Amino acid sequence: MQYLLMIYGNEAGMLAASKEMVTQMSGAYFAYTEAMKKAGVLVGGERLRPTSDATTVRVKDGKTQVLDGPYAETKEQLGGYYMVEAKDLDEAIAIAAKIPSSKFGSIEVRPVMKMSM
Fold first, then answer.
1. 36 — alpha (psi -120 to 50), left (phi > 0) or beta?
2. pLDDT tens digits, the chain, 117 residues: what are they?
């Protein structure tokens, strides 16, 4: 079964991190991603641009509304994701617990509902 591992953290803190911290975290993510590839569980994943680059789209009464940036103020922002293949939720949680920034933020583990297209 596929699971989406959504990586949440304090975006302002991440953007203000020292060059050394960024280098250390990038190295940890590179190693983690390589380990998932070797284990055969990685389906995909990407880092996301800051929320200041986001656009929120809503349709109300048939009219499209476009807002710059995120719609809601939150303490943690979605910064990236991994899509993994795991035998069950317990395995997905174990994979998520190894994401480097799980020590500083949170990881939402959500099963993917397959849709026939």
1. alpha
2. 999 999 999 888 888 999 999 999 999 999 999 999 999 999 999 999 988 888 888 899 999 999 887 666 677 889 999 999 999 999 999 999 999 999 989 999 999 998 887
Q: How far apart are CA 105 and CA 17, in angstroms?
A: 14
Residue 92 burial (10 A CB sphere; 0-12, 13-18, 19+): buried
Instruction: Check: CB of residue 42 under 8 Å from CB of residue 82.
Output: yes
The helices-and-strands tally (H runs, E runs) of the chain is: 3, 6
Gyration radius from the chain CA atoms: 16
Best CA proximity match to 4, nearest among 114, 110, 113, 115: 110
